[in-house]
Amino acid sequence: MKIAVYGLGYVGSTTLACLAEMGHEMIGTDPNPGKVELINAGKSPMVEPGLPEMLAKHRATGRIRATTDGREAFKDADACLLCVGTPPMADGFVDQRVLEKVVLEIADLRLESGRTCPMLVRSTALPVVHQDIIAILEERLAGRQTPAYVVHPEFLREGSAIDDFFHPAKIVFGCTGECGRNFSESLYPGITAPTVYTDPLTAALAKYADNCFHAVKVTFANEIGALCKGMGVDSRLVMDVFCLDTKLNISPVYLKPGFAYGGSCLGKDLAAMNAYGKRTGIHVPMLANVEESNLNQIRAVADRILATGTKSVGLFGLAFKERTDDLRDSPLVILGERLDKAGVKIHIYDPAIYAVAYSGSHMAYALEHLPDLRRMISDDAPKVIGASDTIVISRAFPGLAWRDLPWREGHSIMDLNGSLDLAGVDVPVTGLYW
Ligand SMILES: NC(=O)c1ccc[n+]([C@@H]2O[C@H](COP(=O)([O-])OP(=O)(O)OC[C@H]3O[C@@H](n4cnc5c(N)ncnc54)[C@H](O)[C@@H]3O)[C@@H](O)[C@H]2O)c1
Fold first, then answer.
1. Could you tell me which of 296, 254, 50 has the C-alpha nearest to residue 156?
2. Per CATH, the architecture of 2-202 is what?
3. Does residue 117 have an active-site annotation?
4. What integer is the mean pLDDT of 66-78?
5. Residues in Cβ contact with 288 at an 8 Å cutoff, skipping those fewer than 6 apart
6. Which of 69, 129, 277, 330 could form a disulfide with 320 if both were Cys (CB 3.0 to 4.6 A apart)?
7. Does domain 299-431 have CATH number 3.30.70.100?
8. What is the Å distance from ligand 1's center to 101 Cα?
9. pLDDT tens digits for range 142-154
C-alpha cells in the first residue's frame, strides 16, 4: 500500500519506518522542516532504539520519503495515518486543534481528488473529541463522501517502540460505519495479534483505560513499596510474589465494571495499611482514597435510584457477593440503608440471608444498618418483584429465570452486575456503567 503519515514525532516516525519494513511505500509529512530533512537524510528525528537503522535502510530501498507538504503526501496515498500531537490544555483536556486541522485538510484533498482515502487516527483523543471532529468532518463533506474516519489507537511505548510495533498486544479499529474488515491484514501483513473492530468511541476509550491503568499500577506498586520500606520489607520481593498470582492479581478478575467491593477482607486490610501509613507518616494518597471512591460508588447508585422518584425498591442480593451469607461490609447493606433512610420501601430477595435471618453470624452488622431487615428479607422472588417498582439486581441467582418473574408496567431494573441474562424481560433496564 501507499501510506501517508501525518506527524513525524515518536509515533509517526516509528510508524513510517515499521510500515516500510513491512513492505509499504511510505510518505511522511510534518510542518517541521528539520524533522523532514532528517528523515530524507535517512536519520531519525528522535532517540529510539533501532529507528535510525530502519529509517536509513528504507531511505535506501526508496520506501520512505518525507515532505512538509501535506498535499504532496496525500497525492497517491491509499490511507492516511494521523499521528499528530494531542497535547493537554491548561485543565488537562485534549487540545484537538492540530488533529482537527489535519482532518479538514485531508477532507478537502479528498473532495478535490474524489478519492475517499481513509483516515486512521493514531493520535490519542477522548471520545468527545472524535465525536466533535467527525461532526465537523461530516459537515465539510456534506454527504459527498463518507467520513471514512477510523480511530486506530497506538499502544507503543517509547524506548521499545519498534518491538512494540511488530509485536502488539492488540490491534484496535474503531470505525465510522463502513470500515473494511481487511484493514489489519492490509496494513500489518504478517502481524498476528488479537484484532478488534469496534466503534470509534470504544476504540478511543480502550487507549485511555490502558494508560490510566498503567498509571494506577505504577502508583500502586510505589505506594506498596513505600509501606513495605516503612515496615522493613523488600517491596521487590513482595511484588514478585504478587505478580506470581495470575488467577486473581494479574488477570481479568476484579477488572469488570460493577458495584462497590465489600466483605470482611478488602476494606479491613486496606484500612490496616492506611492506618500504618498514617501512624508512621508514610503518605499513600492513592490507597488512602480507595475507600472513599468505593463509598462513592454506593452513594452514586443510591442517588441514581432516588432521582427516579421510586417509592419501593426490590434488592436482589444482600450479601457482599454470590455464594455466601457474609454480610460484613456488604455495599448492598449500605445501599439499602441509604434508600431506607430516604423513605423508600425496601424489599430484599436473598435466600441465603433469609435462611439465617435469626442465626447468621453477621446479622448484627446488617441489623445495625437495616433495623427492619427481618421484615424486608424474603426467599420469594415473585413476592419481592410484586411489591417493588424498581428492582436492583446485583447478581444472578441459580435457578431464577428473570423472564419468568411477574413483571408489570411501571417496573424498572437497575443492573449492577453487567452479565445478567435479562433476555425476554420486557421492562426498562438501566445498566450501572454500560
Ligand atoms: N509518544 C508515545 O509513546 C505515544 C504512544 C501512543 C500514542 N501516542 C499519541 O500519539 C500522538 C502523537 O504522539 P507523539 O509522541 O508522536 O507526538 P510528537 O509531539 O512527538 O509528534 C507530533 C508531530 O506532529 C507534528 N505536526 C504538528 N502539526 C502538524 C500538521 N499540521 N501536519 C502534520 N504533522 C503535524 C509535529 O510537528 C510533531 O512532529 C499523540 O496523540 C499521543 O498521545 C503517543
1. 50
2. 3-Layer(aba) Sandwich (3.40)
3. no
4. 97
5. 274, 277
6. 330
7. no
8. 14
9. 999 999 999 999 9
Determine phi and psi for 81, rounding to 5 degrees: -105, 125
Pocket lined around ligand 1, Cβ cut-off 6 Å: 6-12, 29-32, 35, 70, 83-86, 98, 101-102, 122-124, 154, 156-158
Determine the residue of 83, 106, 126 to mutate for testing ligand 1's pocket, defined as the one with the most ligand atoms within 8 A of the Cβ atom: 83
Q: Which residue has the higher pLDDT, 359 or 293?
A: 293
Mean pLDDT of 189-196: 93
Q: Cell 509529512 maps to which residue?
A: 29
> Probe ligand 1: pick from 5, 8, 11, max atoms within 8 Å of CB?
11
- Domain boundaries of the chain, sorted by first residue: 2-202, 299-431
pLDDT tier for residue 181 given thresholds of 50, 70 and 90: low
What number of residues does the chain have? 434
Q: How far apart are CA 126 and CA 73, in angstroms?
A: 27
> Is residue 218 over pLDDT 90?
yes
Ligand 1 centroid from CA 200, angstroms: 19
One fold for 2-202 and 299-431: yes
- Dist. CA 180–CA 185, nearest whole Å: 10
* CA 139 to centroid of ligand 1, rounded, Å: 25
pLDDT, tens only, 322-347: 888 889 999 999 999 999 999 999 99
